[in-house]
Amino acid sequence: MRARMLHASALAEGVDTDTLLRGHGRALPGTRTGWIDVSIRTLSPLFVGQAPVDGAVNRSLRVDGRPAVPGSTLRGLLRHTLRMLTGGETGPVNTPRLFFRAPVRLDPDSRRGAVPVRTRAVVGAQHERYRRLRGGRTRQGFLLHRDGEWFVKEVPRGRRVPRNSGTALRISFGDLRASLERWPFGAEFPDPPTATAYGPHTFEPHRPWQYREVFAVVLSDPDRRRWRPPAAARIAPTREEAREYLRECGTPGEVVRCVVVLTGVAGARRANAHLFPVPEELARGAARGPGGDFPVRDCHPVPRELVRLVDSADQVTRYQVENFPDEVSMVEGGAGRPGPGRLPLHSPEPVWFTVAAEADGDGRRWVTSFGRAGGYRVAVGGADPVRRAVPEELWSPQHGDADRGRRGNRPVDVPRALFGDLDVLRGEVSASRGRVRVGYALGDGAGADHPGGPRRVRLLSPQRGCFANYLLQPDPGRYGERPDLVSWAHEGDVGLGGYKVFLHRYRDGAGVELDEAAGAADDTCRDIVPLREGLVLTGRITFTNLTDGEVGALLRALLLGNPADGGDARDPEHAHKIGLGKSLGLGSVHLTPRLYLVDRRARATSPDVDAGVVRADAERVAAFLEAFDAALARARLGRADPARWTEVEQARDVLLASRWRRRLPWEWTRPMTLEEFATYPVLPGLVERFERFDARAAAAGG
Question: Where along the chain do its domains lie?
């Protein structure tokens, strides 16, 4: 829905859309300026903030000791709600950090018990399809730089012990310490810290081991499963000492020159180190140091766009800066990193990577994704994950684009007009500045915590819960091909269309069921202290030069289908969800807005603090809502009838998803198990699910 469709009151005064979006410093005819005081009442426990550390108790966000909801959270809620109601741009989705996980392969010997045959077949097919689309397995190799170009050289195949090219070795920490007892390495190797903040360079005893060159003793193991990488029995400082140990074993095997690679935040129970076999060219030093030379015909080229993205400020996180300083290098004199955490120019860098499924015209298979120890993984299947996630119609003008002028003039939609641009890629056209500002919401700090002490929540795989929460399921027969609704894509093939929401999950009389925090939590759980139910926080939304329709849009995003005064705050018809743990039932809130309008001229001519400020009564609020509802009905149904706004498909779905008083039963909204997800990867749509519930409720009432 174009923003212009809400600008009728300004257009009637001769103010066009371009003038409206640029007129921040002066009052424009046909517009409103003021603020909305918002009361947020928690209907279920609420947790806002982060819970990054397992084993610690994490409290919901506080500001000066008072429970708080950040303005960015409320702003995101408003923008997302308006985007759903008006069909706005989906915008960047978790960009540019896009993580994609392979479908889990079910182990028939696992402790899950008997796995249904259909589940095993469905998940197995998904897993094999994923591997086939991705161009094979994840490989290991060395990232190399030469003359401004980047390449990846696979680790070599095994000679006497079978091992595919691109497959690294591993060694258990126990065997590594046994090697230290036999040979003097000059460094110890204690167990890594259990905290997820562990990094090989930040943990001082492990610093000498990252990228250290050793000689691994690999023994033949006829009982080893083919898909498991071979393990090294020992590592030695020199080739001669490794060969001596191999002779003592009396078992066929080989000695392999390797570098040690320690991973970072992979989990608290890490028990292995990686050993990357060094290719012969690198062992000779051909690719080491400035101006190194190596045969590129045996390497996989890396797109410049991929390197630029990986080396950008968005990907060079604090972990990268701390654990990849210039001294972490395979060569003497430093790796030649342009800055801490950046990719090295003078030293090979051990990486995990994938390649394209098909070779190009020159027979080369380009790298599609790569990452390093404990760091980033760039989305598979495209040189630029941002452009893969955002539909082409929504791209901002980029340097080098032949059609950047056309891209810079794309129509402004409603969320963009109110809140400004969401562009993450710097272009040549100035971004739109928002006309809505959202501040923090604060509550009373006394007795704000949920009673009963810390609660334990288990971290969920996002795939298991997300499919049921999309307003528009991937049904081309019903919705058609809508590129502006693509919000999640995998391997350029599987796509979910729509806007993601979380249904309310609450058990009458019992609330949200969360386990008590008893004993030590493992790395799949977090102990949190959420805010209690019934807590009230207040915040303020300020706006400048909004038309009647845009003020109505803000109010509709706050009220949803509730009355103009917000309705019953303790048991409303509709409610929002914010914060963390939404799929577990946390974060259900009711919003009550109070609208105040400001007459700038009256305030400028009077010293009275209340001059020009008027609280809008119910009749005026209804008029603003009617202006937006009529514009929405006209845009989607072809007739400006405000009473029909709920007939718009997306508005209907938003109202269903936000139902609190007549929400779906507790057992209908629990997260799926892996087996259920394999059998029912996409649940019925919202309309069908609520029709079933309403029919059952009507039958029970009758």
Answer: 3-97+437-671, 134-383
DSSP state for residue 661 in the 8-state scheme: T
CA-closest candidate to residue 46, choices 642, 694, 537:
537
Contacts of 408 by beta carbon, 8 Å cutoff, 6+ apart: 396, 397, 427, 428, 429
3-state class (DSSP) for residue 228: coil
Distance CA 148, CA 153 (A): 16
Q: Give the span between the Cα atoms of 126 and 645, in whole angstroms.
A: 40
Q: How far is CA 579 from the centre of its chain?
A: 14
Q: How would you label 140-163 residue by residue, b for 16+ Cβ within 10 Å and e otherwise? A: bbbbbbeeeebbbbbbbebeebeb
Q: Which pLDDT tens digit goes with each residue over 570-603?
A: 999 999 999 988 888 899 999 999 999 999 888 8
Q: Are strands 300-302 and 169-172 parallel, antiparallel or unpaired?
A: unpaired
CA–CA separation, 578 vs 586, rounded Å?
Answer: 8
Tokens of 317: 């996180």
Of 416, 349, 360, residue with least CA distance to 383:
360
Distance CA 329, CA 331 (A): 5
- Its pTM stands at 0.63
What string of H, E and C letters represents the secondary structure of 254-304?
Answer: EEEEEEEECCCCCCCCCCEEEEEECCHHHHCCCCCCCCCCCCHHHCEEECH
Backbone angles phi, psi at 471, to 5 degrees: -65, -40
* DSSP H or E run through 150: strand 149-154
For the stretch 238-295, pLDDT in tens is 999 999 999 999 989 999 999 999 987 545 556 789 999 999 888 766 555 555 566 6
Pairwise CA distance, residues 558 & 422, whole Å: 21
